[in-house]
């Protein structure tokens, strides 16, 4: 394995990018000779150029050696430029990769069995890998490490010279097709040599290390399997959990030491008294971690609690034994954690206890190969750790000191110049950071803080960086941007300090952060995520089509790296890629089936995002119809005029714990009358209303009805006679009024106080005519309740019975104090009565028709209001104008008189005789009166009718929705108060966990409610379920469903490519014919294709 650390490799990458970006000088003195080759035949040109640049050893594959190689700078430059041109074309990288695979499989169909992933996935990985090779081609050490890492990843593939040859030729042909004349001779030589170097390395690594690595991985998987079984048996798994969770970040050495002591004691007991009674209490170590700690105590390393730190990452280290760069990352992080450890660290101890533990856990498998392989692994880890031991503490202090002592104005400058320095070095970076300068400075500040925080809490930072990395996946930041970023940041830091240790500390930690980010981006960049960045439906569909059917839903909903995850669906919403979000939603809610299983992403969606309805209401309401329609399945078959319909509304009714779901409340808050009328919402809200909420609501209204009856009895109706009231009547009235005050006032008061303080606490303040009021008062019922409360309080204070009682007149309303208040009291009683009846309109929600009628009345009342304003205006205008003609009719002088006359005319209360008298008395006055009557009765009255008709028409279509919203709001509040037991009984009555039949005998999915609807309500001409034959393996993707036009596009594209290919090969043949007599033998870098 190669040596080196993060810092060196990243520095090399930095230098590469710098020379590349700044147009650095590439020269190896052979350019003149290259120019002289122009006249030779292509094959001869190629060979001469290879010789000219001293690359003869890469003409063929050589699996016997693998060492660092320096490629001539001119070659590196040519390859990098070629790569840039080839991949930055409009087709995009992935399409180039796919073209390459098509070429490869055409040339060598037998190679197809080697590749198990879908072509698109392979293409993406191949292009990323090749890109990283080319980017480090100019730096021997970085190239060596990268090739070696790739070699490890190819261990399980039989890479042979012949296969590598096919690869090379296919790639060169594909590039040739794409670039034609622009694929220069130097670039051909370079890419040929690079691919041969990599191919040879893969063969070498496979021969040298394959045995060791497979021994390690195989034996570790056996150990792991035993661990899992043990944990399953030992359901509580206390011991292993404790060890695995060991976090020594905050110097938890004491705790760790205690655990080591415990193990030591138990180990000692075992040694001393093996086979005796006490042994039963002692836990025999069965997992690797337990065994290691046990062996550590037995072998006298009981105090080496640092081993716990290694154990936390040991699994990742072993599993990534073939991935050197990951191994290095793990060791770098571990070295930071070990730096916090206060005791002495003797690294070789770990090798001894590991080997002893594995020997005990693998008694049958263990042999000398295992001994060599595991020893080799630890030696590599030890080598990497030794490089860093002792350094992190010094670096942390240096960086802390630097940031602590940096004057504020310099700190601001450092922060402000970070990204500009990066843009200077890599101008392409600007395309990814188009944010405002303040946001960029904010990010720069975070980056600087992270470089120090990495030393302070490395494990927490790894988590945090993974999360940040996943966000970078969403912003489609290419990994190539990170080396120049580190480079620019370090160069900037050097301008602020001359202290080498500070620069070193900053460079090291930033390089490690960038490395983790790059890994996260590489792991998190799935085809789906890349497609989302394009916001194109067809690209996303292609990406989804290669997902295994069993994982399709989870790949659309979650991408995880370590413990962090990101949801492609939510990301597409957040980034405004709503086309993609809609495609994802449609795909998730499509029911697909093979012979064995029905696949439907509804459960996945609501399990991963229980708050999806709320999120859509807030951020993407346009997607609500897609979601709500996707919850319905309708049968294509009908029986006796009826059709089966399954509504998968389980997650709309209940949350993941089986409690009341907040979804209905969210839809009510969203307030859209269209959404609430979607069939799925209608069904579930009606079920909640009719089965749970309506009884509770009715119970509360019955109380209200009783109170109203008592109020009516106490105030009026029953005793209608002219004489004075009898004592009995007075007693009944007093009793009713007292019951009314006692029954209404406290209830109304408490409810108002509750709402008032809730709104104040939540800051829910609305405005009416500019006045701030708590929002609950915007609701008619609540504001009417407040008015009723006030009026009842006034009535109680003015109550005639109470006044007479207080003045010792007994139970009567006939006393002086009562007489004084009677008039005011009766007005209040009138208002209270109206409010009581007004509040009763709530009961209309039992019928959607009545409820919408009530709402329509409210809506059109506005039009009537306009009519009244216009009428008052006309009355004032005409009454004042006619009163100016007082000389014509002195007996009716004054505006007030005419106001009264005209009002009674417009209300049709003016007597017929008076009209005749008016006409006979004065023609001059009759004319304006006629005009007034014409305007009011002909113009305004008809206008009012037209207004009402139109506004009724407009309002009624939405009124059903508003009525539903009204009822849903009451349902949502009422179900929240339902006792848990009653709610559970209701849920079990719905039997949501039972699978529903699609058609007779075809048992399908659970989580729904089946109803029958009239066949012609929603005609269905196509089976909603997409059924597929063929393999039923969950790992197989669904067969592609290409739309017709997409298919056409595809065909045209292919035809175009084929034509281009033919033209190119014709041109090439013609060129070859004119320059040489033709050559035979292997084609070095020239196209083999002839069509
Ligand atoms: C070591 C290198 C880097 C670190 C530690 C880093 C860190 C961060 C952090 C902490 C954020 C804020 C995340 C959030 O709050 O959502 C961020 C956002 C971002 N970064 Fe980086 N970054 C690095 C390199 C880069 C590079 C090289 C690019 C592109 C050329 C880049 C592009 C972005 C973009 C586009 C955003 C989103 C900005 C926004 O939300 O307004 N980053 N980065």
TrEMBL record:
It comes from the Eukaryota. This is Globin domain-containing protein. Residues 1-34, 258-281, 1029-1091 are annotated as: Disordered. Residues 1075-1091 have a biased composition (Low complexity). Residues 70-195 form the Globin domain. Residues 262-272 have a biased composition (Polar residues). GO terms for biological process: calcium ion import across plasma membrane. Coiled coil: none annotated. It comes from Effrenium voratum. GO terms for molecular function: heme binding; monoatomic ion channel activity; oxygen binding. Residues 1-12 have a biased composition (Acidic residues). Signal peptide: none annotated. The keyword Iron does not apply. GO terms for cellular component: plasma membrane. The chain crosses the membrane at residues 784-803, 824-846, 866-887, 917-941. Keywords: Membrane, Repeat, Transmembrane, Transmembrane helix.
């Amino acid at each position: 394995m190669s040596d080196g650390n993060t810092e060196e490799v990243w520095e090399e990458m930095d230098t590469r990018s710098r020379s590349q970006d700044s147009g650095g000088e590439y020269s190896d003195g052979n350019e003149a000779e290259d120019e002289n080759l122009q006249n030779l035949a292509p094959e001869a040109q190629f060979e001469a150029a290879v010789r000219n640049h001293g690359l003869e050893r890469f003409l063929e594959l050589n699996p016997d050696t693998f060492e660092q190689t320096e490629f001539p700078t001119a070659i590196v430059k040519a390859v990098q430029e070629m790569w840039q041109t080839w991949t930055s074309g409009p087709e995009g990288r992935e399409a180039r990769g796919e073209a390459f695979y098509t070429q490869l499989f055409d040339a060598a169909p037998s190679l197809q069995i080697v590749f198990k992933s879908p072509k698109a996935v392979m293409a993406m990985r191949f292009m990323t890998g090749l890109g990283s090779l080319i980017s480090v081609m100019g730096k021997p050490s970085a190239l060596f490490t990268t090739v070696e890492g790739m070699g490890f990843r190819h261990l399980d593939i039989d890479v042979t010279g012949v296969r590598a040859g096919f690869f090379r030729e296919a790639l060169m042909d594909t590039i040739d097709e794409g670039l034609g004349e622009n694929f220069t001779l130097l670039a051909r030589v370079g890419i040929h040599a690079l691919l041969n170097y990599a191919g040879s390395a893969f063969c070498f690594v496979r021969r040298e290390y394959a045995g060791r690595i497979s021994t390690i991985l195989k034996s570790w998987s056996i150990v792991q399997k035993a661990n899992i079984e043990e944990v399953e048996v030992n359901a509580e798994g206390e011991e292993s959990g404790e060890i695995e969770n060991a976090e020594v970040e905050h110097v938890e050495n004491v705790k760790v030491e205690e655990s080591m002591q415990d193990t030591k004691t138990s180990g000692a007991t075992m040694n001393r008294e093996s086979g005796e009674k006490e042994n039963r209490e002692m836990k025999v170590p069965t997992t690797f971690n337990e065994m290691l700690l046990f062996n550590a105590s037995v072998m006298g390393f009981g105090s080496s609690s640092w081993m716990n730190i290694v154990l936390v990452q040991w699994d990742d280290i072993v599993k990534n034994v073939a991935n050197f760069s990951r191994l290095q990352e793990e060791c770098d992080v571990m070295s930071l954690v070990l730096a916090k450890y206060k005791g002495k660290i003797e690294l070789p101890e770990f090798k001894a206890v590991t080997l002893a533990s594995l020997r005990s856990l693998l008694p049958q498998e263990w042999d000398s190969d295992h001994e060599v392989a595991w020893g080799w692994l630890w030696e590599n880890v030890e080598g990497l750790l030794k490089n860093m031991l002792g350094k992190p503490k010094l670096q942390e202090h240096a960086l802390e000191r630097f940031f602590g002592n940096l004057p504020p104005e310099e700190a601001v400058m450092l922060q402000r110049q970070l990204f500009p320095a990066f843009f200077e070095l890599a101008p392409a970076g600007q395309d990814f950071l188009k944010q405002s300068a303040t946001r960029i400075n904010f990010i720069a500040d975070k980056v600087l803080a992270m470089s120090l925080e990495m030393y302070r809490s490395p494990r927490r930072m790894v988590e945090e960086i993974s999360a940040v990395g996943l966000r970078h996946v969403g912003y489609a930041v290419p990994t190539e941007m990170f080396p120049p970023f580190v480079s620019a940041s370090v160069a900037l830091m050097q301008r602020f300090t001359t202290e080498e240790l500070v620069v070193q500390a900053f460079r090291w930690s930033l390089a490690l952060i960038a490395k983790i980010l790059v890994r996260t981006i590489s792991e998190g960049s799935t085809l789906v995520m890349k497609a989302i960045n394009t916001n194109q439906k067809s690209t996303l569909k292609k990406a989804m089509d290669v997902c295994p059917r069993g994982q399709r839903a989870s790949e659309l909903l979650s991408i995880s790296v370590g413990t962090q995850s990101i949801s492609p669906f939510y990301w597409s919403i957040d980034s405004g890629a709503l086309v993609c979000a809609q495609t994802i939603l449609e795909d998730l809610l499509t029911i697909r089936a093979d012979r064995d299983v029905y696949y439907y992403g509804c459960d996945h969606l609501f399990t991963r995002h229980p708050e999806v309805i709320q999120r859509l209401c807030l951020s993407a309401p346009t997607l609500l119809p897609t979601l709500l329609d996707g919850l319905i399945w309708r049968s294509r078959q009908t029986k006796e005029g009826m059709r089966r319909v399954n509504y998968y509304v389980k997650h709309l009714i209940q949350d993941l714990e089986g409690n009341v779901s907040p979804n209905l409340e969210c839809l009510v808050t969203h307030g859209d009358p269209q959404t609430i009328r979607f069939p799925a919402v209608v069904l579930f809200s009606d079920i909640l209303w009719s089965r749970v909420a309506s009884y509770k609501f009715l119970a509360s209204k019955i109380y209200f009805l009783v109170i109203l009856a008592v109020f009516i009895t106490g105030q009026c109706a029953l005793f209608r006679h002219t004489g004075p009231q009898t004592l009995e009547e007075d007693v009944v009235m007093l009793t009713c009024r007292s019951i009314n005050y006692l029954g209404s006032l406290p209830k109304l008061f408490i409810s108002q106080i509750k709402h008032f303080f809730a709104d104040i606490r939540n800051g829910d303040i609305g405005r009416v005519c500019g006045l701030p009021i708590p929002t609950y008062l915007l609701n008619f019922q609540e504001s009417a309740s407040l008015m009723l409360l006030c009026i009842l309080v006034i009535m109680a204070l003015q109550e005639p019975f109470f006044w007479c009682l207080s003045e010792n007149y007994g139970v009567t309303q006939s006393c002086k104090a009562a007489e004084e208040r009677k008039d005011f009291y009766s007005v209040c009683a009138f208002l209270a009565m109206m409010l009581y009846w007004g509040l009763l309109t709530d009961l209309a929600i039992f019928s959607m028709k009545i409820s919408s009628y009530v709402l329509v009345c409210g809506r059109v009342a506005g039009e009537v209001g306009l009519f009244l304003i216009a009428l008052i205006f006309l009355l004032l205008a005409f009454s004042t104008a006619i009163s100016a003609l007082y000389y014509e009719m002195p007996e009716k002088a004054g505006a007030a008189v005419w106001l009264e006359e005209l009002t009674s005319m417009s209300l049709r209360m003016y007597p017929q005789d008076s009209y005749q008298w008016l006409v006979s008395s004065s023609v001059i006055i009759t004319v304006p009166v006629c005009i007034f009557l014409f305007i009011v009765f002909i113009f305004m009255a008809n206008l009012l009718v037209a207004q009402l008709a139109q506004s009724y028409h407009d309002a009624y279509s939405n009124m059903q929705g508003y009525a539903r919203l009204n009822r849903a709001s009451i349902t949502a509040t009422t179900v929240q108060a339902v006792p848990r037991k009653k709610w559970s009984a209701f849920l079990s009555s719905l039997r949501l966990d039972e699978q529903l039949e699609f058609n007779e005998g075809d048992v399908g999915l659970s989580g729904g409610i089946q109803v029958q609807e009239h066949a012609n309500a929603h005609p269905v001409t196509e089976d909603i379920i997409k059924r597929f034959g063929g393999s039923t393996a969950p790992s197989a993707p669904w067969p592609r469903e290409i739309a017709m036009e997409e298919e056409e596009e595809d065909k045209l594209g292919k035809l175009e490519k084929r034509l281009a290919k033919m033209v190119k090969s014709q041109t090439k043949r013609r060129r070859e014919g004119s320059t040489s007599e033709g050559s035979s033998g292997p084609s070095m870098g020239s196209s083999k294709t002839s069509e």
